[in-house]
Fold:
Amino acid sequence: MELQLLFPSRYYCRWPFKEPRGYQEEIQRLDVRETALLVVDVYGKGYDEGDPVPEYPALFFDQMFLRERDVIRNRIVPSLEAARRAGLPVVYTTNYWPRAGWDQSEFGKMCQRTETGWAGTLEGSIGGDSDYVAFSNIISPRAEDYVVNKTMYDGFFGTYLDVLLRNMQVKNLVCVGFTADICLLNTAIGALYRNYRVVVLRDCTLGAEFADTLEDMRMTWFGIRCVEAMVGFTATSEAFIEACGRISKSGEARANADRNA
Structure:
């Protein structure tokens, strides 16, 4: 008997364009054997109990760091635990910048121009061995998880992520992480291009807000809407965790029946 993750999701229908149908619901029916949890850029220090706010938070602002810490602790970590109990593979794709001439690249120049200039070059300020891309214990990958280092926004660009997923016969990706409008969004688009079904847990992400978008969280909204209208689906962590729980109980019941046969 095929085990399926069943949970409600939504997408955004843009037509008719003057009066769009808007949010539409769809029940996801994902074969457990073909589904993985993809964790995008959840690195950074400061998320463990008692840790101070880092001098250079992953989402730049102290206000965003506090929100991100809440999302990690109360949404992403429970989703990870539920996925593992249900037997889903967990795949991390995370920023890592080895010395590769980034400071001479257009990407490196852009980062210095808009983000890292105050702290130096890309390689010098947030290179592969810096605390900026280190994992807090609470979100650190486990031995059985997979970790794919990336250098660009899209986790598929120049990496073996697609090979890994195809080796595991994965066709569906449930995605969490950061940021909704940059790396998570670009990785979701990369997945769509490679014919994966994408479901983003919308309460397990945040955008890279600017000083003038913090109040209304505009970039978070933008990233989620882009996924819903042009990439795939979104769902809540609660719905996903409940679906994983049903799989876990079904697996336990099946194992007990096998032992008692």
Summary: The chain has one domain: 4-96+133-260. Confidence is low (pLDDT under 50) at residues 255-261. Residues 250 and 256 are 10 Å apart (CA to CA).
